[in-house]
What we know:
Layout: H1 2-16, H2 26-39, H3 41-44, H4 57-69, E1 80-86, E2 89-95, E3 103-106, E4 110-112, H5 130-137, E5 143-151, E6 164-167, E7 185-188, H6 190-193, E8 203-211, H7 225-242, H8 246-249, E9 250-258, E10 286-288, H9 299-315
Parallel strand pairs: 4-10
Antiparallel strand pairs: 1-2, 2-3, 5-8, 5-9, 6-7, 7-8
Amino acid sequence: DRNVIDYYALMGCYSAGLNDARTVSAGEIIRVNNMNNMAGTHFQKGGGGGVVTGGFKVVANTFAEIIREAGGEIRTNAPVREIVVQDSTAVGVRVRPPGGDDEEIRAPIVVNNIPPRHMGNVLAKRYWPLDFQQRIDNQFPLAGLLGFIGLSEPIETGDGRAGDFSIRQLPGTEHLDVIGEGSIFSFEQTSEADPSRAPDGKTLMNTWISLYPKNPFSPEEINNDELIQTLIGRIYDFFRAQYPQWDDVYEWGYFTQARDMYGLSISPGQLGDRRLPIKHPTVANLFHTGDCVAQWGIATDGVGLGAAMTASAVTGKDYTQLLAPWGR
């Protein structure tokens, strides 16, 4: 049934954040749909999925508290300049504190979460076998145009007001120079799901459009400033046509060109087994984590599973059992 095929193609695009199903890994579609099927309505109604109350920084702050309670130290604004390798073994990292000189920090285990496409900045290419170098060169991140809009009141009311609204083709993008013959457009009234995201009586709305970091036939979409301005105009045209009260409730808005979001999203066929291994293939005591390591998850789902798999590899314990069944 063509409708069934089109439905799953759309779900794959939406889940992976891409405009054309032909560029989405089949494995990612299968995994995300399995997750939705297993979670059911529980996933959307407070069962561990969706918006984190207070924003995702709450997760980072919670981890920070645990690390400090265990005697760990957290440094920010101290970029890693190099993963230090001696005798094919990772022995630490070289960092540069703000306004200071390079400093070497020794460690028995090094865990890296820099996406592979940027790893050349901290680990020499010779430590990657040729086939892994080819994987890195041919896998690209998801990029997108992200919007943040402030309203004086919700434009969607009723039971669905906190939902995620998505349309297959933003009107007016059909003939733009984008892969997929038009842009998928999504928006949600984030503060309706999490009131802490906006002042009392106000509404925060987030919008999203996928843009490709590479295009074999046209200029890169995410770096095309003229295209960006056109898309922003189309977004406002849509809201004005869809909601007659728009100009009365709209207060402010800004958009960001997010050039490097989810890891390794663009690939037809099965992507998961072509991602990079958690345990480095040639350097002992060096491990990788995030949504770029060998698995089927993407974005938050991929980060959670990647972290559990990396912790398991480092310690020899199975931490994936801490995740819900659909997250393993």
